[in-house]
Amino acid sequence: MKKLLFLLFTLTTLSAFSDDIVIGKKYKIESKALNESREYWVSLPSSYRKNGYKKYPVLYFTDAEMNSFFHAFSGIAKQMSSDASPQIPEMIVVGVVSQNRVRDSAPTKSLVQWGGTVTNALKTTGGADNFLTFLQTELVPKIEQDYQTADYRILAGYSFTGLTVIHSLYQTPEFFNAYIAIDPSLWWDNQLMLKRYTEFSKKELNKRQLFVSTSDRVPSLYPKENYVAEFIHKLEVSPIKGLTVHSKTFGMDQNHHTMQIMSFYLGLKNIFSGYMVDDAIRFRPAVELQTHFNKISEQLGVDLKPRESLVNFFGYNRLYDHQFPTDSKAAIDFFKLNTDYYPDSYNAWDSLGEAYLFDKQYKLASSAYEKSRELNPENSNAKEKIEEITKHLNLAE
Asked: TPR repeat positions in this chain (predicted)?
């Protein structure tokens, strides 16, 4: 027995290390707006399948190659959308690799760097409009052509590229649905963005969201003025119609170089505030889950559905988990809801068939399994169950 267990452990270990862990893929696009080739990285949700029946919001962020941002941000998005109480929907994550960061981030030309000194390192600045043109007319259309995307886009940036996020909000606020600006460089060009706020505040937006973060400054390292804090104050005292603002000012436990992870997490959590389902919802009627997602969809202005695997989990939990009282009728309602959400999923129909069979509703079970086989003729389980049900019905006659 010990030898057998050792062999099984060895095989499991070898198998576990036989495949690479892939979090995304690298691509290039030829940009006419920037007159250069640009690299971008894409991470797909765990459930992503090229069958056309599930569409995903898309998160775009800059500095994909910096400080493992792509690894961290794509991982955070996956973790927050997983398990039995997801906080956000599953999403496609697109990281744009920085190529000429100061050029692409700065909306104006200036040689004055943070702190007030002049440097020729900023001589390429002033290309933010071209970069936004690249995003909006080249990269986003490419992503929406190649992937199953929902009509919900988020733009995130940090520090100097956080300036790009604010510039995008000012210039074309309706293009992205939500914006995450992590300690953006609002010192730029003599606080240009603060001066432009008065004009921007006159706009009326439609269900747009902004998350902006900063931290208390260390006097020996930073200027006394915190222009991001001043920006947050302006957002509070002169709110913009149709723009929901979330903000976080960290204390000395975080600083400009450490706040990215916490800010990204809080940004997504705040943007999708109200999305999370509580763990006990599986013990209430399935219609409550439907009502929950109808409400968050209306709030955000996009059709959002719970994960197919989540609804399936709720159904099987009510069907088989004897830690709690089982309820086949409640399970059927969850599985039926899943076929409403994902009518082209053979697995959703297969699960509904299983619940009907468990409840001895043989004709309905057979019909559900037939639908599953129609969507996937290779579904051998459905075929076996249909044959089993047919024999049972013939014997019963």
From this structure: 346-379
**Residue 179 and residue 87 in contact, taking contact as beta carbons nearer than 8 Å:** no
Distances 369 to 4, 279, 313, 316, 356 between C-alpha atoms, Å: 39, 29, 19, 17, 10
Asked if residues 67 and 95 have their Cβ atoms less than 8 Å apart, the reply is no
Residues 6+ apart with CB under 8 A from 34: 104, 127, 130, 131, 134
Which structure tokens are listed for 66?
Answer: 């910096």
Per residue in 197-231, pLDDT (tens digit) is 999 999 999 999 999 999 987 666 655 679 999 99
State pTM to two decimals: 0.91
The 10 Å Cβ neighbour count of residue 376 is: 15
**Pairing between β-strand 36-43 and β-strand 56-62 as defined by DSSP bridges:** unpaired
Cα–Cα dist 164/375, whole Å: 45
Q: Look at strands 204-215 and 36-43 and give their pairing.
A: unpaired
| Domains detected in the chain | 22-271 (3.40.50.1820), 279-396 (1.25.40.10)
Question: In 3-state terms, what secondary structure has residue 74?
Answer: helix
Report the amino acid identity of residue 266: L
Residue 40: name the closest of 113, 97, 106 by CA: 97
Starting at the earlier edge strand, list the strands of the sheet with 204-215: 25-31, 36-43, 92-96, 56-62, 149-158, 178-182, 204-215, 241-250
Element (H, E) at 31: strand 25-31
In angstroms, the CA 38 to CA 156 distance is 18
Q: Tell me the three state secondary structure of residue 127.
A: coil
The long-range contacts involving 76-82, CB below 8 angstroms and separated by at least 24 positions, are 76/261, 76/264, 76/265, 76/268, 77/43, 77/268, 78/43, 78/45, 78/46, 80/265, 80/268, 80/269, 81/45, 81/307, 82/46
Place of tokens 């450490």: 258
pLDDT < 50 stretches in the chain: 1-16
d(CA 319, CA 123): 66
Q: Compute CA distances 304 → 38, 211, 281, 336, whole Å.
A: 31, 20, 17, 17
In this predicted structure, what is the pLDDT of residue 2? 37
Task: Using alpha carbons, select from 257, 371, 307 the residue that is nearest to residue 45.
Answer: 307
Question: CA nearest 100: which of 120, 116, 118, 122?
Answer: 122
